[in-house]
Write a structure and sequence with these properties.
It is a single chain. The chain has about 80 residues and is an alpha+beta fold. The chain folds into two domains: about 5-40; about 45-75, no CATH class. It is about 20% helix and about 20% strand. The chain has one helix at about 50-60, and strands spanning about 5-10, 15-20, 35-40. The protein has a three-stranded antiparallel beta sheet, with no helix packed on it. It is rod-shaped. It starts with a strand and ends in a 14-residue tail after the last helix. About 5% of the residues are buried.
């Protein structure tokens, strides 16, 4: 069940709807059925180098290295 973004042609409001096969599309603000489907950018998963370094530092602080590659694990 995808969530779509819409703009109402009647009142101009932007909103998102969870769309099921039996969903009747109507503006939650004014009830109009004349809606434009909007293009939205998907959110990319957080995999930046800064986030990975922070997660690895936290894991090292807690003492677990299971998600590291063998070459990255500390020598004990």
């Amino acid at each position: 069940m995808p969530i779509y973004a819409y703009r109402c042609q009647g009142c101009g409001e932007h909103f998102e709807l969870l769309v099921r096969s039996n969903t009747s599309l109507a503006c939650p603000h004014c009830g109009a059925t004349m809606l434009d489907k909007c293009v939205t950018a998907p959110a990319a998963p957080g995999k930046s180098k800064a986030l990975l370094q922070k997660a690895r530092a936290q894991a090292a602080k807690e003492g677990h290295f299971s998600h590291y590659a063998p070459s990255e694990r500390p020598k004990v």
